[in-house]
Amino acid sequence: MKITCALSDFDFDSRESDLDVILYGQANKGSQGSIGGSLKREVQRKKLVPEARAWDFLSIALAVISADSAGHRKLSPDGWTRSFELTVSVNDPEFWQSNDSILQDLLAFLTTDRWKLNFFDGGMLPTPPKSPVFPSEDSVALLSGGVDSLIGVIDLVTEGEKPYAVSQRVAPDTSKQNYFAKKIGEGLNIFQASHCVRIPNKERPQSQRARSIIFMAYGVLVATSLKSYKEGNNVPLYVCENGFISINPSLTTNRVGSLSTRTTHPVVIGLLQQVLNNANLNVSIVNPYRHKTKGEMLKKCKNKKLMSSLVWEATSCGRILTNKIDGQYVHCGRCVPCMVRRSAFYAWKSNGDLTTYRYDDLSIKDEKHAGFDDVRSMLLAIADAKEQGIQRWLGASISSSLVEDKDKLAEMIKRGLGEIEGFLNSQGAE
């Protein structure tokens, strides 16, 4: 699928494509897509001045999100793997074209699709504001509204760091992101953004495999706007997620699709860091919890009082928009992220989980509870890992040469499975 992504003043008729997408604007006709319409305004409202290549990386990320939304997996030859030829307008096409292979490898690992990237001149670079703001924060931290990013930011502030929070607006987490930012320390500055992708004939349900790249791009954009960055310092970009979900090993040989996302996998982080280094963007991506389970993050949080007052409001569920009780969104309680959450809370406080779950009792032997695919797959994974040994069971999950600490990661995955086994046993799930 050929997709051209450019600013609204570009002559799209000059390039042959299957879909034209306007970056940072609105579609001019029904056959066009659009994305990022509010992003430029949000940056200007904050009076930030990101680097040109940070804008370029954001444009590439927006183009990837557009493709991920437009490509229909069921129409591909194997029913899953899609092929994209993506042409994007940037400020420095020569540089990005010289790094296309790294980007293509990154996107292939992230989405399991095939990518070909082309770049041409004409990127986003707004005129700097008359009175620019260079925030005094020393780092940037992604704050999704989930448990892990909440703990991560609490730990950073407790340790004396001053992070600038960055969030992707997603229902129902937007208000939680603001609430968390206000409650941590003396209150954190927060940059909230939404890509607002609008694509004709969008894939349903929409793929989420590429979502991490846009979140990272927001972080890089803000990081290069900080006073510390402008003074020549390296700025840490904290991406806080427990190691089990970062690796997110396929529970069975059949679960290789969207159920096994790779948002913060070490390969993704490693390739993305290569891109930033080559672009001379002095930003370091850091996941301080890559060797910790979710339960260990809860147990070792550096401000348990604050965490305990907020953590129940955090979102984990991958299907929260499909589950309501009395008109309120609730966790399903049975998807993989929910099981990891429930297991972590059980490991931390065996009877202290205050979360409402749509499917709370996983001992019920029907297809909605113990017989649900994720629950059955998790029980099989626990048994298989014991039988095969953790290294063999993990297989290709950590086999890449970009993963340097395989033994530590394998031990962490073993502990993570142990947490989940303990919870499922307490439920009587079998």
Total number of strands? 12
* Sheet with the most strands, sense and barrel status: 5 strands, parallel
Strand content bin: 5-15%
CATH class of the largest domain: Alpha Beta
* Share of helix, binned: 25-40%
Structural class: alpha/beta
CATH topology type of the largest domain: Rossmann fold
CATH architecture of the largest domain: 3-Layer(aba) Sandwich
Amino- and carboxy-terminal Cα gap? 44 Å
Sequence stretches where pLDDT stays below 50 over 5 or more residues: none
The average pLDDT is 93
User: What is the molecular shape?
Assistant: globular
SS field, number of helical segments: 16
Radius of gyration: 21 Å
Question: Numbering strands along the chain, what is their spatial order in the largest sheet?
Answer: 3-2-1-4-5
Work out the count of structural domains: 3
Give the H and E element order.
EEEHHEHHEEHEHEHHEHHEHHEEHHHH
